[in-house]
Fold:
Amino acid sequence: MRFAAPAMLWWLFAVPVLAALAFGAALFRRRALAAFSGSESHAERFRAEVSVHKRAAKTIALLVAATAGIVAAARPQWGSGTETITRKGIDFALVVDTSKSMAAADVAPSRLARGVAAASSLLDRLEGDRVALVTFAGKPAIACPLTLDHEAVRLFLDAIDVESVSVPGTALAAGIEQGIRALGPPAAEGTVAKGRAVVVISDGEDHEGGVDEAIAAIRQAGVVVYAIGCGTDQGAPIPDGESGAYKKDAEGQLVTTRLDERPLRTLAIETGGKYYRATAAEGEVDEIAKALAAMDASGSGTVLKTRWVERFQIPLALALVALILETLISDRRTTS
Structure:
């Protein structure tokens, strides 16, 4: 046996407290009756009209109802079976730029924070889709492999930081290609291909080149790219990790980073996707979510899932019976 909501069982500790309150209330009534009647002999005449045993039975019935109700709320389950589930959905990779330039604050609170917020919002809008998370600066890495667990992806997403970059630089094409690898091999010839997409979030700066080769790889893999550009045309200086300091060139001049939309737009358009600029209203997230939802999707495979049989009906029925009995029992003493 197992409980689907075991946290509810903590409320069982309240049952002894209710029992103690009921006992205290009985003592209070006894003393109040003695004070009201003026003498013990008069109090006994009043008590003779009430059955102590029936009143105790009513209290026990209420305690049983409370206990059974708490157990029912914890959803006891026993007995299980398996069922075959076919998932319908697409596979997509979130490819997030974590280079130093993403720390620039030309969009509040920073380019990276704006991009992470957009990615998180996209996860909220999509259900049943497998997601992978890839980060890249000078070198790409798979932060989270393809999974249906969006909350796991969100945990890795929240941990993204430009300070964790091991290789400086911005290898946009390599990040995209890593995203394709994270999606796995395409469907075999003669089968219906699942929808496959890459959502890249970057300021567009590219120090390594290779965008044309990346486009060829994207087309071969049957992947569509949607791009979100973070930053502004005016740009901003790049924080260097020290408090209040910014990156400077060899001549001591501040290094300004600006949004470069050209490679992002090229990647998106050449692969059948679309390019958007990141906004606080996240309208671009809505558009990408609609586009991904509209992509053709086939069953990505079948899985056997264990289904436990719900048994909350038994303690719930016991609680209802106890409440009915408490209502039907009269605490008046029967006279012959």
